[in-house]
Amino acid sequence: MVIEKDWVVVLKALAHPTRLRIVAELLQGTKCVTSMQDLLPASQANISQHLGILRNARVVDFTQDGAQRCYYVCRPELVGGLLELLRDNPAPPA
Amino acid sequence: MVIEKDWVVVLKALAHPTRLRIVAELLQGTKCVTSMQDLLPASQANISQHLGILRNARVVDFTQDGAQRCYYVCRPELVGGLLELLRDNPAPPA
DNA sequence: GAAATATATTCGAATATGCTTATATCAAGG
DNA sequence: CCTTGATATAAGCATATTCGAATATATTTC
Fold it and tell me: Which of A76, B11, B29, B33 is most open to solvent, judged by the fewest CB atoms within 10 Å of its CB?
């Protein structure tokens, strides 16, 4: 199996509680930064930093709408699939 | 969507080139630490540390065979599924 | 064009990760 | 029990992440 270094970038991007919540929210539908501030216990600057990391990993992208940036998951099958796998495969007993 | 903190532990465990290679190798079949040393450009101590992290995340487990520990992926559907999703969902163009 | 709103970037301190070297544990054979 | 082979753990250092505070940029409105 060939392992692309991109994969590590994606996994690292998702391996953070706030970022995982961000993508879970974005899977439900496009959101701008301000509306994410209402959903998450994090500051504007911090959310923006996390979005930058997700953007670099090519996990999210945005469309500009006036002064707002409407973020969305640009690989929904990947991200949705990952979350589904995690949900359906809990840690084994002891 | 409820996000378990376990998920972040799993993602963090996999978000490292060496550890990702380790699980990819283990998906092909059980291996002991010594034989992994032949496959990976990492020291014994380092491989053992990575295996400890994967163990904590409940991604791998082992059976003791004499002095050897035979490691295997204890959630093959999860790990195999993740690798498959990554392979099938490359980064979108620009 | 000044003010207000939305978002991004920079910087620094705290904390976490990763790796090396050295040492410990532990099982098997003699 | 002493050695050897297999694996784990600990200590220490270098580097990377994280997050808050402050500041910058861009867009709309008046």
Answer: B29
